[in-house]
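Continuing the series of single-chain predictions for the mutant panel. This is the parent chain; the variants come on the following pages.
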Amino acid sequence: MKYKIGIDVGGTFTDFLLAMEDGTTQIYKVLSTPDDPSIATMEGIKEMARDRGISTKEFLRDVTVVVHGTTVTTNAVLTYTGAKTGLLTTNGVRDALEMRRGIREEQYNNRYQNVDPLVERYLRYPVEERLDYKGDVLIPINEDDVHGAADLFLNEGVQAIAICFMNSFANKGHEEVAAKIIREKIPEAYLTVSSTLLPSIRFYDRVSTTVLNSYVGPILRGYLNSLLEKLEVEEYKGVLLIMQSNGGVISPEVAIDNAAVTLLSGPAGGPIAGIAYTSIQGYDDCITMDMGGTSFDTALIKDKTPFVTTVGEINRLRLALPMLNVVTIGAGGGSVGWIDEGGLLRMGPKSAGAKPGPACYDLDGEDPTCTDADLVLGYLDKDYFAGGKMRLNLTKAEKAIKKRIADKLKFDLYEGALGMYNVINVNMAAAVREVSVKQGQDPRDFPLVVAGGAGPNHACMIALELEIPVMIIPRESSIFCAAGMLMSDLKHNFVRSYPTLLKDADVKRFQSLFEDMKAEGLSLLKLENIPEERVEYVYSLDMRYVKQYHEVNVEVTREEVERGNFESMVRKFHPQHNKLYGYSLEEQGTPVELINMRLVCIGKTEKPEFMVADYAGEDPSPAFKKKRRCFLPRQRRFTNVDVFDGFKLHYGNRIEGPAIIEQVNTTTFVTSEYSVLVDKYGSYTMYLKEGEEQVKGRILS
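Parent structure:
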């Protein structure tokens, strides 16, 4: 038996999906080990081996692929625990990292503090050199300045160095000179050169991204080397791939050199999985939501394509690399409830994490969390959490909520727990609005794909808040991102800036820039053992009307590029601009300007196949476990509801809410407004009762 493993390291749990060659899957979860995430990663693999009664070495001999998403770089930025970093930049602009674009994020808040830069000012070393916007040399590089910077960095114990000069996207010569000197004098330092990482226009975006890459580079390198060493000890000979923020995967070697591409790698698996689980039911669009122990991630997919952005931020720091447009907020099972200075109940963003965890974990945690509220309201079974592997302490959950929430608000215990449940649901619904309405989309038009260990317990109330009629809860919802990782292709993004009126663009230069990117991408994919026949290319352009600041990314075809058909490209731009901004200047004849050329090189991988089950009829009674007392939020009362074993539900089984579906890895709370139908792939489709016939027609056809 051959295996593939998807791994998602989260703030509270590390999730594993083990996919067998016969199409079956198995889910594993272990508590994360923040001090060294590779420990939890290896513990999950060892648990898989123990389940099969063999050694870890024997098990790993049959594992062909491990796809791994990591939060180590994200956490380093969020907690300012990255490497000590130095920056070489053009004389006169070293404060750009701190000044940013000169725009206050909250314009009317005079007390709003600027974000702390990742490089202290004395380690931002100015170098005498200057290029104009075309790349012509105005001032030659002063190599003595670079030597001076190297001496300073050595004396200060700098671990990572970023090099970013003005207009180096147009001519990388000066950066190459500086990089050569740094490599000779400080060979052990992690080095990022902006013209290699991000050769595109806009200085602040480029310098911030370059610094971020160096800041997290040594952290990722140390973690991956530790993981690779542990795998080597166990004699693993298969392929290890690392998830990127753009929804693709890359080899560890490429990831180490381009560490910033992993800054949002964990949540990136969600949209990929969402496309797979909805397309098998015939949907082209969906919204994904993933509520884990620490955070809540949501993304919108249109025409089986997730929205991608190249203007993102992490901890208010600009990251200009392509990434899936995933909105993340601090709302998870471990989110702590608290009362603010105005006497209002808040949930998160602080999380109890894996240690000490929610009060009910009985690991010395005293803060009331979302999980504690779910337990008090009856949505969780204290004796069946994690399939009974972890008993929850109801008394401690009640004590924490009463002392820190209910008594302060002069509520009884259950009003306090319900308040926590409602507040976190509203927070998550607001995040879904952010990712949909802001893109000009109505969330009611999309099925909601529900994931995460805590997500199915809150899905109905989020959907009711947004008036979403249909939800899909994959059987593997608790390890959703890990599942998405096994469905991802290898992917490399490239960009070249070519600012010009599109109608005046030089066809040969335009085509040669794409050819350069294509050759670079193909070279990387060959190193990752992808044959040329499995390589695909996606061409796109960043365009705007003359005198605008923001661009619109428009996909173009290979044929348009090869023919230099700029008129066709412009015709595609106008409707895209109208879709995003509500107007077009096509009739006015306003010229269109090209800013950036982008190429995505995709190496297609083999994907796990979904197993199709036989129809088992509507009756779910063989899966019935017992009745349990739980609180109905809209009816504001407790009642006894049927509890079902999710692993004993089969294709065609129908459950009418209110009800609870329990699995080892998650619990689904079905409110009175919804019912559930199990599809042929084992997923639960939850729908408003009045829409039953339409859902049946789609699932049972």
